[in-house]
Design brief:
By secondary structure, the protein is mainly alpha-helical. About 80% of the residues lie in helices and about 0% in strands. It is globular, with a radius of gyration of 16 Å. It starts with a helix and ends in a 7-residue tail after the last helix.
């Protein structure tokens, strides 16, 4: 039953993103930033953790989870290092994900030809 819940929540998130892509002039990059920021805000409001416990991988795999990881990293670094933690916490907590995104994005830029939405 947990797999079904995760599948359903992840599907709802993907469907909402697809509606944004189809019905608005928002570019995919802006929608991705919106998802990351939403995850960070939900983490700040202490809503993301109960949502993730309920939805499982359906909530942690999409970009919402990445935004929450950034928030948690900043929160921990600020607790340890003060104001300087604002600048280093998110990068430290998500270094592996950022590195993978950069590497795969660079490789994909050689394989595919990007087009702008009109």
């Amino acid at each position: 039953m947990d797999y079904l819940k995760a599948f359903l929540i992840g599907g709802i998130i993907c469907a909402l993103v697809q509606i944004l892509l189809d019905r608005t002039k928002l570019m995919p990059g802006r929608i991705m930033v919106l998802l990351v920021c939403t995850g960070a805000v939900l983490g700040f409001l202490n809503i993301y953790e109960p949502f993730q416990k309920f939805a499982g991988a359906g909530a942690s795999v999409p970009l919402l989870g990445f935004g929450n990881v950034l928030w948690q990293g900043v929160k921990e670094a600020v607790d340890q290092n003060g104001f300087l933690g604002v600048f280093m916490g998110g990068l430290k907590a998500s270094a592996v994900g950022i590195s993978a995104a950069l590497i795969f994005g660079y490789v994909a830029s050689f394989i595919f030809e990007p087009r702008m939405k009109k």
